[in-house]
Amino acid sequence: MYRIPEQNLDRLFSLTAEKSKLYIPADTAAGTAQFMPWKEGLKLTDAHNTVRSAKDFFFPQTENLVGFRVEGKSIEVIDVREETEDFVVFGVRACDVRSFSILDKVFLADPVDTYYKNRREHGTILSLACNMPEETCFCGTFGIDCAAPGGDVQMWQTDGWFYLEPLTEKGNAYIDTVSSLLEECGGEAAAECRRAIDAVKKKLPLAGLTTEGFGGDKMAELFDSEKWGELAEACLGCGTCTFVCPTCQCYDIRDFNTGHGISRFRCWDSCMYSDFTKMSAGQPRLTQLERFRQRFMHKLVYFPANNDGEFGCVGCGRCLSKCPISMNIVKVMKNLTEGDQ
Amino acid sequence: MQEIMKKRASELLLDGTVSRVIGWKAGDFVYDITPAVFESAEEIEKDFVYTAFCGANLSKYLVKESKKPGKTLVFLKPCDSYSFAQLVKEHRVNRDSVYAVAVECRGKADVDKIRDCGVKGICGISEENGTLTVDTVYGDKTLPLSEVMLEKCASCKTRKHAVYDELLGEEGEEVADCDRFGKVRELESMTPEERYEFWRGELSRCIRCNACRNVCPACTCEKCVFDNDNSGIAQKAAADSFEENMFHIIRAFHVAGRCTDCGECTRVCPQKIPLHLLNRKFIKDINELYGDYQAGADPDTRPPLTDFRTTDAEPSIVYRRGEK
Amino acid sequence: MQVNNTEFKPKIVAFCCNWCSYAGADLAGTNRLQYPADVKIIRVPCSCRVNPIFILRAFQRGADGVILCGCHPGDCHYTTGNYYARRRMTLLFSMLDYLGIEKERTRVEWVSAAEGAKFAATMNEFVQTVTKLGRNRKLEDLRCRK
Amino acid sequence: MQRIGVFVCHCGTNIAGTVDVKAVAEALKSEPGVVFSTEYQYMCSEAGQNIIKNAIREHQLTGVVICSCSPRMHEATFRKTASAAGLNPYMVEIANIREQVSWIHKDMKAGTEKAIILGRAAIAKVSLNAPLIPGESPVVKRALVIGGGIAGIQTALDIADAGFEVDIVEKEPTIGGKMTQLDKTFPTLDCAACILTPKMVDCAQNEKIRIYSYSEVSEVKGFVGNFTVTIKKKARYVDELKCTGCGECTEKCPQKKVPNAFNLGLDNRRAIYIPFAQAVPKVATIDADYCNMLKNGKCGVCAKVCGAGAIDYKQKDSFIEERYGAIVVATGFNPIKLDAYEEYGYKQSKDVITSLELERLMNAAGPNGGTLLRPSDKTHPHTIVFVQCVGSRCDDGKGKSYCSKICCMYTAKHAMLIREKYPDTEVYVFYIDVRTPGKNFDEFYRRAVEEYGVHYIKGMVGKVAPQPDGKLLVQGSDLLADEQLRVEADLVVLAAAIEPDKTARSLGTMLTASMDTNDFFTEAHPKLRPVESPTAGIFLSGVCQGPKDIPETVSQAGAAASKVIGLLAKDKLTCNPCVAHSDEMLCNGCSACEKVCPYGAITYSDKEFRGPNRTTLIRRVASVNDAVCQGCGACTVACPSGAMDLKGFSNSQIMAEVDAICK
Amino acid sequence: MDRETNRVREQVLRMSGVNVLKCMRCGKCSGTCPSYEEMDYHPHEFVYMVEKGEIDKLMASESVYKCLTCFACVERCPRGVEPAKLIEAVRLEMVRKQGQNRLKPDRIPALLDEELPQQAIVTAMRKYTK
Prior knowledge:
The complex is a heteropentamer.
Chain B: H1 2-14, E1 20-25, E2 34-38, H2 41-47, H3 62-65, E3 72-76, H4 78-89, E4 98-103, H5 111-116, E5 122-128, E6 131-136, E7 139-144, H6 151-154, E8 166-168, H7 182-188, H8 192-203, H9 211-215, H10 241-255, H11 264-268, H12 276-290, H13 317-320
Parallel strand pairs in B: 1-3, 3-4, 4-8
Antiparallel strand pairs in B: 1-2, 5-6, 6-7
Helix pairs in contact in B: 1-2
Chain D: E1 4-9, H1 21-29, E2 34-40, H2 46-58, E3 63-68, H3 71-84, E4 92-96, H4 98-102, H5 108-127, E5 136-138, E6 142-146, H6 150-161, E7 165-169, E8 184-185, E9 190-191, H7 192-205, E10 209-212, E11 215-223, E12 226-233, H8 248-252, E13 258-259, E14 268-269, E15 272-273, E16 285-286, H9 292-296, H10 301-305, E17 318-324, E18 326-329, E19 333-335, E20 352-354, H11 355-362, E21 383-390, H12 407-421, E22 426-431, H13 441-450, E23 455-458, E24 461-466, E25 472-478, E26 483-489, E27 491-496, E28 498-500, H14 503-511, E29 538-540, H15 550-568, E30 572-574, E31 580-582, H16 592-596, E32 602-610, E33 616-624, H17 634-638, E34 644-646, H18 651-662
Parallel strand pairs in D: 1-2, 1-3, 3-4, 6-7, 6-18, 7-10, 18-29, 20-27, 21-22, 21-27, 22-23
Antiparallel strand pairs in D: 5-30, 8-9, 11-12, 12-17, 13-14, 15-16, 19-28, 24-25, 25-26, 31-34, 32-33
Helix pairs in contact in D: 1-5, 2-3, 5-18, 6-7, 6-15, 12-13
Chain E: H1 3-16, H2 28-32, H3 43-52, H4 55-60, H5 63-66, H6 72-76, H7 83-98, H8 108-111, H9 118-128
Helix pairs in contact in E: 1-7, 3-7
């Protein structure tokens, strides 16, 4: 265990940024929090979490895959992949840390997504325990402990100190690069912080939410539930939930005609969109009900069915606060299991 | 108010005047209210709410719901009623199959603004005489409603409905001192460079979630040009700053003269982009160049972009702006 | 009028209505009135055919200036087309200006079939204005850059 | 995949002088889709066209790009060429490298580069062209004339003369219009009735002409060549077929106090009436506002005296539906109301009259049997003041901004007639300008001054004050003498401005024919198509299009007739295939397109569509009538969903051109 | 037109808000003017003289004060030119030029007479105290 006083945070950032790119959660002019490249003077946000999740680091919203140069009647294929540099992400919350392992199950499974893998290998995650979780937080439902956030290095902020505990090789390597600013210490303060957080966790309004009634084996009964209609009827079909979600990983691959060639890129897609997985025969999910059901079935049934019971949600609560009509996974879970209890 | 509305809605459902009611449904945290269709008095009794957090404009749901058999009751706040009237005007909603109930509104709260006041872990909120008491995981807090109102309510233009079949509560007045163009004027007085920086800063946060479009009561296209691969301008992601500009300019242009300034776009934007400033720019320009026009205010007038005067200003008026 | 021979040659798209302005452009040619080759004309039936999308598209693809020419108000071949175009373009240009994009890059001019000289003079002047502004950077799509 | 051929024309040295045509042909050869590229001296020559035809056949071309002069010059030529070789003529695009390149750019390099870019744009466009086939629509060989004044009568006679059936709809009980109320006509001073009534009789007797008098148009549907019109025949309470026009009823009717509209209320008539002796049709009409029988069921005198048994108090408005190929609007005019001009005392004094009232006062069939007497005391006026431009050329919100055109001449006529008949009368004409453009017009006016001694005063009357002794004190300025004149007049005649008939606006809406702010119908082109409305199949005759005198009206009536005959002579109309088209799957039914369409070519209907999961959806969708659409494209931009597109200039085609140019 | 004349002309046009180019020289203003005989320059000439910039002549003339400001010309002008407003503007310009009112308050009592209607006094105040 290492520690550094809060007032030395800027020095830590500065030293980190000398070695590799550093991202920290900070406030935009409009007051929204997002991960930004650190530069002198940039301050850590007071917001509990960022609007967009940390998945962007490994699975960006758009990414060029390949290019084609068209000259007259000839076409040439261009490799547009750039060498990714090492980067450090500071202050990732426990939920987002867990989301990476969920994304790994998709992108690192065979066939490996080399674009994703490349980024994953270059990123070091410094997680931060949640001292003041929001009412929308329900990571506990999925067995995530926001008091011990994980990642390459996990951190606690308490009593004017940041406590750092490396958990991986990459974490150790990072500690080495900034060791000049750190002092070694015992684990008592961090443990005390963990206890405080545990106490808060119990008070959270969604603390009682469980995954009971969901999972890979509940396919048939949940799919045919009559409640989907009512749940989906207000859904606008926008992609807000999908795009702020740390685990949504659907993408579309498109060609962009640049006038002198083609740029083939992939971009996030949303199962909420009317043209999601549309093929020449049309869109297999014709109404918003089916598209809505797809999103939640995927997270709560299909994903665990294919991934040893691991759910496709980390309880970050972003969709709870961002959905334009305030429909969300918690309401869906509660509603679907309403009669059961 | 809520109880009056519940009573009336139940009555109308029971006597068969209406077959369904579009209203607001309670959530888990007081503020997370979902628009919903109620088909029985029991459902109304159980979940119907009308609180300071019923900001959502229900009129757009009528595009779908009004096609169902029987009449659909919809609750409309003053600003929502303009959207409704505009939808009727554009034949998107069949007026005869809607039973419009006007409800009074004194402004709705924005939970994001409450959070911006440093409030975390909200478990409950109660309103009394314009003061909100917020119960949080970390203790209680009180806030005046007027300070945490939605942008659209802070710059409310009218508390009077455009159209309705029945009014519940008291009809309000137009807000005489409404200065909804203040920020637009401020932007206009900046240099082009400053304006460019401002908008790049705002629009660069866009994640193209389409929430603004999908919530907009003027955006009811069967298929949006941005979703139509044959349109030549379909976009799925904001892959380049141009695409952000293109989407927002064209969207604002498509609703120009039809936008009632209901403010939903800004309310739902997860990235807090002040999208209403684009629409209001068009509204302000239209008012100044072609005479005051309020979309949805009446059933007959031609929207400004499908109308003209032979004496209209020339486009060069734009170049002369800012010159003295 | 001659545009200074600088390195920068702007790309300019001119939408011309078939009945007046395209004919006016032809007349400029018939009278051998010079204007820079940077201007490329697209023929449309009427100024009201020009969708704001086309104008943004041109900027996306690297145009540095876009000009729309139509019949004089009151002379539209389709009687009212240019009146609609006038409103649309006024609002569009105002919006572009509002977004901080140089307003001088867009223009509407009414050119009749008899105004070859006006067409040439307008194009000379417009090319000069746009050349002064330099490359359109605020509204281009970087992917389209060569 | 398209197979495109590119043909670059030298145009002698016109193009080849400043454009390297070989380089252009070579560069375009490597464009995607291009399978053939060549250049030639004169593409438009027979040899040049043969090159194109042969290439189309030999290389199975699906599209042709010709880099040559302006498409305004030879587009039609090359389309025919393509057609002759079996290629759809709309698969031809032209890159204008003469007017827009070689003639304006001296620099060979710049010119060649630009020519290549324009060629690329044309190739990009033609790759997206679709073969277009002009549609056809049948023509109903009948015409409708709305308004039975001299304009409508002349138009109907001319159309009938060419052998086509024509119907006249007239809202008054008789045709004839304003001209029936005139006494003499300028500049020949022949009697209006003498020249008009024979034409009215011709109409009545012509087998091809049917007159719907006392009728109005209540609905118009359809489009050029195929209009369906509903005509409302107002109840006149007299059976037209039975009435012989003997006039017995109009003598016996006890209701004598009905203001006589024909004489502008200067005298009275009965409740059952025939407007004037030469009315066509000569059929009585009961004025329901005054008839005792209709109002309270007490009277029935006319029915008793009618030998033909034509009176029918139970008659109702009836509606007739007719089909026409063409419609002529000839709705005419009325003098404006002068209530707003208090300074002239029109309401205060009976002796301040309008010029049209003067016509009636001077007419042998008028209230005084043709003797000019003051309306107030029936004495001879000895001093008469004419005031010009009353309500014309006014920008004050009370009158009309335009010149009414006919007043200068009829005032000269009036002044002359009065001086001739009553030489002891002094006549003053206050004028701003005397406008006499017309054959023998200025001569006519000069005669009034030189031979008849009419006092023309340059200046305007400021005030007309009725005096206790019955005189009218006219105060005006004499600008040339720089003095303020005061004239003690017995009679003041106001040249009231004329305005389109009030029915014109609603008719314009029904016909979707555009109108200006003064409610005059707009012509398709102010110089070159002055008798056609922009809406196809609608023609304009007479003052409904703008102020006109009789000779002008008659010539325009003839012109409108010849346009109608030209249309009706066709069995089928070929439509421009470059028209708007609505994609029903995308259409919102919002009516934005309909609002901007100047031709009324867009209609809406509720259609059934297959919805998701075996449901059926009813949606309101637009459809474009190919026969009416002129292809301007206004609707394509008004449509937010992109459902409206224009064939031949589609969104994708124009964007492809943009892309090619900006590349 | 020299610069000074032009300035005065612009000033008069701006103060009055009148567009003299709308005048079609019909003379209705002069035909309607009750004060016509008293004036050297009549309302229609006023308009034309302002158009031509001959404002010095107008200022030198008594006509400016002969106008009763009855607004008959304004009311009846078919083109909406409003000659009386021009005259008023010229009066104002004169006052500005000479830096004082035409009429000083102490002179007023002597000018009043029993017969003078109240309305005339008010109009006079309006005219002379500019």
